[in-house]
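Amino acid chain
________________
===
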Amino acid sequence: MARLHAERSGGLDDAPVIAARGLTRRFGDFTAVDAIDVSIGKGEVFGLLGANGAGKTTAIRMLCGTLPPSAGEIRVAGIDMVRYARRARGRIGYVAQRFALYDDLSVAENLELQAGLYGLRGAHRLARLRWALAHLELTQQAAVRAETLPLGFKRRLALAAALLHEPEVLFLDEPTSGVDPLARQHFWELIYGLAETGIGILVTTHYMDEAIFCDRLAFMHEGRIIEQGTPQELLQRPLATPILELHSAECADCMQLLEAWNEIREIIPHAGHLRVRLNAGADTQTVMRKIREAAAQRSVAIPLLEPATPELEDVFVAVLEEAAARGRP
C-alpha cells in the first residue's frame, strides 16, 4: 500500500468535489456535528477519524444527502446538496457500515437490482455489471447468495453496487471494519485504484495503519474537526506529551520500576520494548537520565533508550487530550 500511495502523491486535482461549510446537525438539544468545514478534491482520499460517537457517520449521512443538516452549506459534484439532494445523489456512491443489500439474493441479482434502481439500461447496463463483477473480483461468486458470503466479499459487493453508476464521489463508512488484514489491504488497493480515476473519496476508519495512507486526515471529537492535514504534517506536529522508546530484555521489571513516576503519563508495551509517554512539561533528557540511574541501581539492562518517533496514533491521542483539556471549565 505504501508503494501505491507514493505513486499517487502530488497528483490531485484542486477542484473540490465535496465542499461543506458550517455543517451542523442537532438532535433536540444535542449537537452531533458542530459547524465543520470539509473540502475534498478529485482523486483525493480523505480520512475522517474519531472515536465512536464523534460524529463521523452523521457527517457522512449529511454529505451524501440521507440526513438534512440543521445548518450549513454542502456542494457535492457541483450541486447544492441541501436544495437538490436527489439530483446530487445520482453522482455519489455510498457504502454504509452495515451491509445494506439483500441477503436472500445472489451477488449477480443484487447488482442487477441496483443497476435498475440507478436507471442503467441496455448495453451500458450489461457492461457495468460485467465491470463490477470483474473489477471487484466477484465473478466466481456471482451465483452465491449474499448471506453466505464472508464479510470481506460482502464489502466488495457493497462497493461494486455503489460504483455501478460511475459516481464522481464515493463515501465509505468504516469499510474494512471486522475484516481480516489481507482483505483490508486488498480493499484499500481497490480504493487507491478508484482514486486514480479521479473519484473523490471520503472514508471513515479507526485503523491507524489505514489512516496513514489517506491523502489528508481530519480528527473529529464531540462533533467538531479539531485537527486536519496530510499524514506527514500531522506526524510532524509537536506533541505536548513526549514519547520515549525503551528496549530491554526485562520490560516487566522496567514497567514496575516506572509506573509510579510523576513524570510518566503512560507506558505502552510493544514486542520487546516499551513506549513511555511523558506528562506535559517533563524534560525528556532529565527523565532519560533518571531512568538509566534507577535501572542501574536495580541491575536492569537497558540497551536502548531514546526519544521515539511519533506514530499517528500518538498524535491522535495527544490531539484528543488537548481538545478535552480545552473543553474543561
Summary: DSSP finds twelve helices and 14 strands in the chain.
